[in-house]
Amino acid sequence: MLNVIFTKMENQVVQEAKDIEKTSQEDHLLQSSGPHSLVGSPQLDQKEDCTSKIIAPERNGNQINTLQEEAQIECVEMKNGTVIVCTEDDMESDHFFDPAGHVDRNREENVNVEEIVGQILEEVVITVAREAELQKGENGTAETPLQSQTTIKCIQTNGILEESLQVGGSSSLTDGKSVPDCDVQETEPSVPPPVNAKFSHILQKDAFLVFRSLCKLSMKPLSHGPPDPKSHELRSKIISLQLLLSVLQNAGPVFKTNEMFINAIKQYLCVALSKNGVSSVPDVFELSLAIFLTLLSHFKIHLKMQIEVFFKEIFLNILETSTSTFEHKWMVIQTLTRICADAQCVVDIYVNYDCDLNAANIFERLVSDLSKIAQGRSGQELGMTPLQELSLRKKGLECLVSILKCMVEWSKDLYINPNLQSNLGQEKSSDQDTSESKRAEATRRRGSTNSFDSTVSSGVGSVGAQTSAADDPEQFEVLKQQKDIIEQGIDLFNRKPKRGIQYLQEQGMLGTTAEDIAQFLQQEERLDTNQVGEFLGENSKFNKEVMYAYVDQLDFCEKDFVSALRIYLEGFRLPGEAQKIDRLMEKFAARYLECNQGQTLFTSADTAYVLAYSIIMLTTDLHSPQIKNKMTKEQYIKMNRGIHDSKDLPGEYLSSIYDEIAGKKITMKETKEFSMTPKSTKPNVATEKQRKLLYNLEMEQMAKTAKVLMEAVSHAQAPFTSATHLEHVRPMFKLAWTPLLAAFSVGLQDCDDPDVDFLCLEGIRCAIRIACIFGMQIERDAYVQALARFTLLTASSGITEMKQKNIDTIKTLITVAHTDGNYLGNSWHEILKCISQLELAQLIGTGVKTKYISGSLRGKDGFTGNSGTGGEEFLGLSTFGTVDKKQIASIQESVGETSSQSVIVAVDRIFTGSTRLDGNAIVDFVHWLCVVSMDELSSPHNPRMFSLQKIVEISYYNMGRIRLQWSRIWEVIGDHFNKVGCNPSEDLAIFAVDSLRQLSMKFLEKGELANFRFQKDFLRPFEHIMKRNRSPTIKDMVIRCIAQMVNSQASNIRSGWKNIFSVFHHAASDHDEPIVELAFQTTGHIILDIFKKHFPAAIDSFQDAVKCLSEFVCNAAFPDVSMEAIRLIRHCATYVSERPQVLKEYTSDDMNVVPGDRVWVRGWFPILFELSCIINRCKLDIRTRGLTVMFEIIKSYGQTFEKHWWQDLFRIIFRIFDNMKLPEQQTEKSEWMTTTCNHALYAICDVFTQFYEILNQILLDDIIAQLHWCVQQDNEQLARSGTNCLENVVILNGQKFSPFVWDKTCDCMLNMFKTTIPHVLLAWRPAGIEEDSSEKGSDLEVDMQSVCSAERNASEKGQSQFSQVSTTSDEIWKYKQNAKMSDRKLFAALLIKCVVQLELIQTIDNIVFFPATSKKEDAETMAAVQRDLITSEVHIDTEDQGMYQYMTAQQIFKLLDCLLESHSFAKAFNSNNEQRTILWRAGFKGKSKPNLLKQETSSLACCLRILFRMYTDETRRDSWNNVQKLLLKTCCEALAYFITLTSESHREAWTNLLILFLTKTLRISDKKFKIHAAAYYPFLCEIVQFDLIPELRVVLRKFFFRIGIVFQICHPVEHPKEETT
């Protein structure tokens, strides 16, 4: 019948909705057909007004129709709009509706159930009737305006005039003065509803009254003592609760949404549940839990604060208290199991409570309590049997796993299963984009449909959307952070109040004023009341301000004194110090009088202060168990005498105070009082009876506190948020992961029950999934490490202790690797480490490697001394000493299941499934696999290659990935192969190289497009191994692998050529002949054959090829290879020459190189540069060949070179002459200059001459500078070559020289002369002889610099070798020896300079007159003199081939200056007999005294030739005057010098010079001769007295004879003889 009432109510609303819809349609038709309208109809207006609120939301859903159909099927039949209700007889009394609305026959065990139901219904009817009559009687009296306002009439369709239910009156559940026993019947709680709360139909009112009556009925107290199952009270309570459960489970949309019913649930049902929820009767308790579940499912959006009270004060307290019975805990945890299975509910609990600043952390506390239960804590304290404890643990674990499954379910749209991906892994960035889009989509469609349990659904219709708050994850996260800060501050306050307040202020959660702090102390119930009292009672200024503000915020108006004092002291506990109490009471008295200024009891605040103090003392006296002699009323009155301004307060007043305090002590708020009792106290209960008694007391206190809190929030409105966002799971898991991990770890460690193990592993798996999805690395790593630890594969305990749960753990770990691989990151390390050790366990289990059991390195106690991580140490197997066959067999049996086919296949799936990992995950996977492989290989006793083989396998599997991903993978794998390939163990290195070869062959088959570098990266390990591994076997293997690649895959190789040539480059410098021969053979094959076919593909590595050949050339151990390599370099030049277009078109990373220069940069330059390197590095025969080939290439292909290429080229060539690159040893340096530099110098000049037109403008200065450098070197051959080359360059190209070039050339020669004049010869003194420093010129300092440094170095060496205190004769002798050595070096350098001077003089002569012309002329002149034919002109065939005709007078005068300066120096030296003697004695230049006679005479002779040539040249008439002056001056000085000579040999040296001078003078015209003869005549007269050779005398005779003729002293006489001859 009860269901009929509520179903009828719902159907009535549905019918009204249909009627309204029908009426609106008719109205629409009338409006469209004519002007008639029913707008003014009062019935429709009322109906719309009364039902719009209820009907409107329900139109949006299909829930009404469903419920309507169900109702029609069960008990209601709709006919023509008339409701026909089935009679009570038509329904069986034991039919109740389950949540789905279907009939469920639950037969009562009691045979009198019909009678009980009848009695209950009769009571309900009587109660409803009585309330109606009472209300009718009240309505018959005069109505107050308020009643008239709240009584709103609604005209229903059935014509009944109905007054809306008025819940008036001031009675309340707490209105009784005191409730000594919680089982006493409470008075009716009645609260005025809002004005707009009303019923639209009498049926709704009936339903409300029935519902309220059932709530009251369920609160009827039971009789004292043990409950009697057959008692009427208990049975009626159970039946009423069952009926309420049925009503709630079958509630329709009206009941769920109408505000009156919601208020009824808050005010009646929740209060009733707060009492029945702590009932000691299991049936009552269980029904209360079922009702709570239904409320949580259907009404949680309206009952936010009530649900908090249920959780915080009842359920969780029952779980936490150590005295609660197993039955209660079991029923609570059964209920929590259903709650935890609903994803929406779990997330809603976190969002609405843990993220609410004013709510308790329900989710956090729930997880913590469940974790403790799952860990089996407090099992002994409860007196449970082991089976009960295990069952409870299982349920706790089940709840925790359900919570995690809810989180996984909630965030499932973010999860990407790698095994479902059709393509090879994508990059993480794209994954993140996909995740974000999925997350947004999931957020849009996330609702309550994700719950795991369909019976616990949280769907609340569309009203929920109106009343719930917006779901903003970021906002909730901020709130949660603020809440954590506040809780941290409260925790600090409860230990140190000032520190807590300071912390909250620093975090911005608390104001700095005294009022802010006072408000915080007053409103925050979690503060320790002791600390609040201590803080308020402190004597500091600020504490006093806070205390004053605290008291001023209290309102004592219209309160009696004791009530005010109770209000004052319910917020904190009074401190123990009297002075603090004094200050608190003083302020209280002042505040009380301030609020009650109209009272006449107290004349001053002093009276109130003393009285308050006395009340405190009375409370302590009467209610303290330590005080046995209690104060009497008379003693109390006596104690207060004279406090009222020296008068007494009324005795009746004091007596009433005494009675009140005696009846009820002054305490804190009940909620605070209960919250302050420590939950963790675990009293030692001696007997079961004591435990039950203690539990009853606790339950009583719980019920009391819950009831007070429930009534306090019965009218409060709190917004409830229905969570929709996926992001909530992250902070939820962040909060819960630690207790969850503790629960699962303890379960796996302590318990061998398969169900517990399964739940723990399932929980860990879900936790890892959540941590992975949200990228929580620390949490993920912690769970994976825990899982790895329980496999016992990495534990020190060893696999000998392995049980079934450890095998299951291994399988779970493998499953995690398979399903969550995309997210594991660093956790792959633990997983792969376990897999590695699993392979070892499988080997042991199958008996393959029993040697791992016995171990190879044992200490005395059987323990290994090595703590490495590479092999058996992981498994704890090294802890065995001598192991017999039985032990081996038992060990193999314990690990045998690890070798099962399912495990092996699952492990293989991890590696084969690596192709489905995304771009970042595969890199992490490969990285940690390489790390584990290194651990395996680094085992000192038994290195394994399991992981190395797997690396090769996954390389094959993943080779099909996009190149961007593959390059990242290979970066890791390649580095690993580098290390393994350089392993000291040849077996490992050979395996690595062979694996590389196989992978490379496979990779090269794919080919490569232009400008990519994947092959280069792939083949780099070969290069590394070749460079670092010193084993000839490995090197030979690498060469052979590369050779095989070249022979089989040459057409596919692109960027890999660089690595190939790099490997051969390293091989080229080896000292092992087979390695060098094999490498060179393959290189030759590449250069001669492959380049011919695939040259365009190898352009990028062309430079490397040439460099490789250069390295072969420079290996001095194999000269034949060197020569052949130079030939191959020459062959490379033909490729560049024949295919320049290919080089021009090739584009690579040198895009900044213009196409025209690519031939040079990629072709010619590498060849010529490497040849120059060969010249600089190799021995004489090799470098000579290299030099020849280099200049041969330049001469052969130079015509194709661009102008700016030549500049680069000569920079390379001039490196041959670089001082910094020359050998340090003097002998090698000398050989180098004599051979290579000399050869190169001539070759340079040849090239310059051949390509003069191009090189003239850009390289002339460089050529001149290089020649100048050669002349300055301390190598006679090179210096001679420098002058010779200068001579050749000028003679061969002088005809093409411009005046500017001639100027440069002449300046060069002038500089050469100046820098090579040996001025030191005139100033040198041997060591020890003092000399005037002023006589030394700057040239001396320059030339002596090297000498001084040599002396200094020598002396430093001497000092370091012989550290003696005093100067000994040995040191003096050594100093002299060093000085002699430096003198020899100096003399050698000076001698070379003298030679250079002669060479330069000869060079000028050859340039001006062509080589050998002067010698021929001297010979012809001498012959003419001897024949006495002096006056006839001497003509030489080559005299016109000289450069004289191309030079200007100015340029010639520069050369003359050089010659004259050289002549002057030589003359000065030859005249300084003393200096020559010093030098001779010092060992300069042989056995005779040094002289510069040849320089003296040849420089003057050249000078005279040039002057006389200019003097007789008709084309240079404009210079004759200058020439004549210079000639006269020079000749006069020369003659004057000759006269002064005393040495016969010196005069003989001048003979040819005098003949030249005289014959040249004789051949000039008479006019000119007259001028010269006049000047020379006195000198010639002096010369006559010397003993002259006949030829000179003949010339003198001719000269004097011509003087006579020219000056007309005599007439010419013809000599027939002379003419005939």
Structure commentary:
By secondary structure, this protein is an all-alpha fold. 67% of the residues lie in helices and 1% in strands. It has 69 helices and six strands. The strands form three sheets. It has a two-stranded antiparallel sheet. It has a two-stranded antiparallel ribbon with strand order 3-4. Strand 5 and strand 6 form a beta hairpin. The chain is elongated. The C terminus is likely disordered.
Write the layout of secondary structure elements.
Elements: H1 2-33, H2 42-59, H3 63-74, E1 76-79, E2 82-85, E3 95-97, E4 103-105, H4 113-140, H5 145-150, E5 153-155, E6 161-163, H6 202-218, H7 232-249, H8 253-257, H9 259-276, H10 282-298, H11 304-320, H12 326-340, H13 343-354, H14 362-374, H15 386-410, H16 428-445, H17 463-467, H18 473-495, H19 497-506, H20 514-523, H21 529-537, H22 541-552, H23 561-569, H24 578-595, H25 605-623, H26 633-639, H27 651-663, H28 670-676, H29 688-712, H30 729-750, H31 754-773, H32 777-789, H33 804-819, H34 828-845, H35 851-854, H36 872-875, H37 885-894, H38 901-912, H39 919-937, H40 946-957, H41 963-981, H42 986-1005, H43 1014-1028, H44 1032-1049, H45 1056-1068, H46 1073-1094, H47 1102-1113, H48 1119-1138, H49 1140-1145, H50 1155-1177, H51 1180-1197, H52 1203-1214, H53 1226-1250, H54 1252-1272, H55 1276-1293, H56 1299-1316, H57 1320-1323, H58 1338-1361, H59 1369-1409, H60 1413-1426, H61 1449-1471, H62 1473-1481, H63 1493-1511, H64 1520-1540, H65 1544-1549, H66 1551-1562, H67 1566-1583, H68 1590-1606, H69 1616-1620
Antiparallel strand pairs: 1-2, 3-4, 5-6
Helix pairs in contact: 1-2, 1-3, 1-6, 4-6, 6-7, 6-9, 7-10, 9-29, 10-12, 11-12, 11-14, 11-29, 12-15, 13-15, 14-15, 14-30, 15-30, 15-31, 18-19, 20-22, 22-24, 24-25, 25-27, 26-27, 30-31, 30-32, 31-32, 31-33, 33-34, 33-38, 34-39, 39-40, 39-41, 40-42, 41-43, 42-43, 42-44, 43-45, 44-45, 44-46, ...
